[in-house]
Amino acid sequence: MEFSYVPIVLSLKVAFAAVIIVTCSSIPIAALMAKREFFGKDVVESIITLPLVLPPSVIGFMLLYVFGKNGPLGKLFEQWFHTRIVFTLAGAVIAAAVVAFPLMYQSVKVAIENVDQNLEKAARTLGAGELRVFFTITLPLALNGIVAGLVLAFARSLGEFGATLMIAGNIPGKTQTMPIAIYFANEAGDTGQASILVIIMTIFSFLVIYGLNRWGKGSRRDSRGGGA
Amino acid sequence: MLKAFFQKKLPTFELEINFSLSNGILALVGPSGAGKTTILQCVAGLQTPSSGEININDKIVFSSEQGVNIPIRKRRIGYVFQDYALFPHMTVEKNVMYGKPQKGSIPNKALTVSNVLEMLKIEHLRNRYPNQISGGEKQRVALARALMTEPELLLLDEPLSALDQDTRSTLQQELLKLQVQWQIPFILVTHDLQEAEMLGNQIIKLDHGKQEEIRKFDVAQ
Known about the structure:
The structure holds two protein chains of two kinds.
Chain A: H1 6-35, H2 41-49, H3 56-67, H4 72-81, H5 89-113, H6 117-125, H7 130-141, H8 143-159, H9 162-168, H10 178-187, H11 191-224
Chain B: E1 2-9, E2 14-21, E3 25-29, H1 36-44, E4 51-56, E5 59-63, E6 68-69, E7 77-80, H2 92-97, H3 113-119, H4 135-148, E8 153-157, H5 165-182, E9 186-190, H6 193-199, E10 202-207, E11 210-216
Parallel strand pairs in B: 3-9, 3-10, 7-8, 8-9
Antiparallel strand pairs in B: 1-2, 1-4, 4-5, 5-6, 10-11
Helix pairs in contact in B: 3-4
């Protein structure tokens, strides 16, 4: 059988879309959780982190329930956009976003918490309101953690298998992403296609981890700096 | 003109303070944990007193009775932090510019960055980052940044404690000069009685949150 690169394109599409959703949602939520105290915060924190430990099949099942034809959000989508989520690429994006979210969230939250509070206080004494403090001090100083979270979330989205299979299925050319293509190519005895995709995924994942480690070392060296 | 009388409950004792200051330098002296920084932070609005009133230039910025608590950014107070708290991702110039008022709210003082950098002899550091300059230079940048906001009151939290003796003596002299130049009251926190006696027109000793002794000298002009 000839090698098909379509799963790679689909995987990249899914991962990019998922990372955009995760970035836009995790930064404000992480900022809120890092800076504010409120009733039930521990419960919210646990729910947010849950996809990190739940089996992908459980997440897939829940997503099917929520976004299914008769599910609460599935119905809304059907009515408003005349489209469905299940067995479409949108479903794959949602699955990838849900599993990648906690990785990005934790990375961003730790980064925000690690910003020296004296710097934020200093900005307030210099006349800055809370939004200006956040965008000019907190966010730029948390950037390393945000980028690290972003890369991890991207890699996790690219590798998402279980939940994606349940909600988006295995439709070649439509929802068949790399990990799913590997599984079914192997099942069908097409080891050629499977091994090429396996090599691509492994090299990519290695580069992500290697790059993050190198970059982490570099930024630690920079921040040490030193007086004249 | 600053008038402050307030109480603040702390874990091990209650801070009780009552002072007024029209010009010159007020030195707050005391051992670590005496409540010196807490006083500064209450005046600045970084902490809230349990009760009392703080009045800057006849404007109430905090009053427990009237339920007034003006946010920090509207109090027009310059604050120099113990560890300088310079923004590490901004150059010296950007640090100093950060608090520049949008419109010159006090026209006769309408300051340019160059004025302030020159006054503190740090013009050559304009494009450097905080991790590329020495402790004494950081202190000057922190002072420049606080003065750029055209404050009505300047608070200094142990500004000289991390510096070597030579730099320290030089900066002590410059603080005295700056105060005369700016004609706004300074409150300086220090654990060094000698430094307090050298710089303070007024000295308050603190121990376990109690005001122990006040000395007033004539404001040197």
